Amino acid sequence: ECLQLDKIEKLEKLNISKNSLNSLEKFYETIEEVFPSLIDLNVAHNELFNSSNNKLNQSILDAILSLENLTKLNISDNEIKGNLKFNFSQMENLKVLNISKMGILNRFLGDQNTSLEVLTNLEELDISENKISRNTVELLSAVAKNKNLNKIDISKNKKCLGRGLCDKRRI
């Protein structure tokens, strides 16, 4: 089933959460063209990365992470299937990022393009309820260089080391 949308010039906020949107690859590939003014995207509680096709999952993630005008992104509660790579290098305007409840291990703390360090304007980060196994101090060091960050939630990470910090809602 193909979803065709004309360009919507002035739309700044789009909430398509809780819709089981797992098969709209073409929509995600054209999202920047259709919504050129988009600054707030909420695709939480869908099944975006649930395909057994890792290439499809990666192309959807790449399309979302290439939206360079976004200041707010919520892709939480979309459990990752397969070995996806996060590349935040085009998201320099991002201020709020919610990637909680995605089953994330350490994928987003990789090289310089995928690291949270490139999100220099980030003010709020929610990576709670994942499977982060890196030392909490190492995780905090990765984002500590960001002087704009005023809220981070790393609670309920099942494999988090330094458990005392992981249980706190705000740091």
Structure at a glance:
The chain is 20% helix and 11% strand. The chain is α/β, with parallel strands linked by helices and 171 residues long.
Structure explained in plain terms:
- It is a single chain.
- The protein has 171 residues and is an alpha/beta fold.
- Helices cover 20% and strands 11% of the residues.
- It has four helices and six strands, in the order βαβαβββαβα.
- Strands 1-2-3-4-5-6 form a six-stranded parallel sheet, with no helix packed on it.
- Helix 3 links the parallel strand 5 and strand 6.
- Helix 1 packs parallel to helix 2.
- The longest helix has 12 residues.
- It is globular, with a radius of gyration of 16 Å.
- The C terminus is likely disordered.
SSE layout and pairings?
Elements lengths: L12 E3 L9 H10 L5 E3 L11 H12 L6 E3 L21 E3 L25 E3 L9 H9 L6 E3 L9 H4 L5
Parallel strand pairs: 1-2, 2-3, 3-4, 4-5, 5-6
Helix pairs in contact: 1-2
